[in-house]
Design goal:
Layout: H1 6-14, H2 19-42, H3 45-62, H4 72-90, H5 94-109, H6 114-127, H7 131-141, H8 147-154, H9 158-179
Helix pairs in contact: 1-2, 2-3, 2-4, 3-4, 4-8, 5-6, 6-9, 7-9
């Protein structure tokens, strides 16, 4: 099967009678990548599904405003990121949930292998980062994006992103070392 390009998807969406096909292809191509990006930000499957749905609704409503100055995927990630940040701002009891997650983590860690323990420590450390550092770390580490693509998504300078990633990595390293 041939992979359809973003330009071909956009062409279908703009073509009379082909919008639904174009939207289906857009969702099919990006739903999994965006889901995992969102999931790493909000941590919960149901919340990630809700934010993903809101992201695609916003994309469909605003696609006519997409000016193709950046890559389509960076525009999609920017919308998903903004939806995540809005969701997290509006979510209540964040601190209480964080405390509960930490307690559950320690109870589970006693029964897991060392590899699982380290992975859980990594996830715990990431969850403790400030939102901007968490976002930058996830995009760079998990999605392997270039700093320029992250800059396009977050509207932040490359230098500031490099500093943010460095600080996030250092905090994660310190947290893992102190808790093992």
């Amino acid at each position: 099967m041939t992979t359809i390009t973003d330009n071909e998807i956009l062409h279908l969406i703009l073509q009379a009678g082909e919008q639904n096909k174009g939207y289906r292809l857009l969702v099919s191509k990006y739903k999994e990548k965006l889901y995992w990006h969102i999931r790493r930000m909000v941590n919960d499957h149901e919340d990630a599904d809700d934010v993903l749905q809101n992201t695609f609704i916003k994309v469909i409503k605003n696609l006519s405003q997409f000016q193709q100055q950046a890559a389509l995927y960076t525009w999609l990630y920017r919308i998903a990121t903004n939806e995540c940040l809005n969701f997290l701002k509006n979510k209540k009891n964040i601190n209480q949930e964080s405390i509960e997650n930490t307690a559950v983590f320690y109870m589970r860690a006693q029964d897991e292998t060392d590899g699982d323990l380290v992975l859980n420590k990594l996830n715990e450390a990431i969850s403790l980062l400030p939102e901007k550092q968490k976002l930058v770390f996830n995009l760079r580490y998990y999605d392997e994006m270039s700093y320029q693509d992250i800059a396009d998504i977050t509207d932040t300078s490359v230098g500031a992103l490099k500093a943010s990633y460095h600080h996030a990595a250092k905090k994660i390293e310190d947290h893992i070392k102190s808790s093992l």
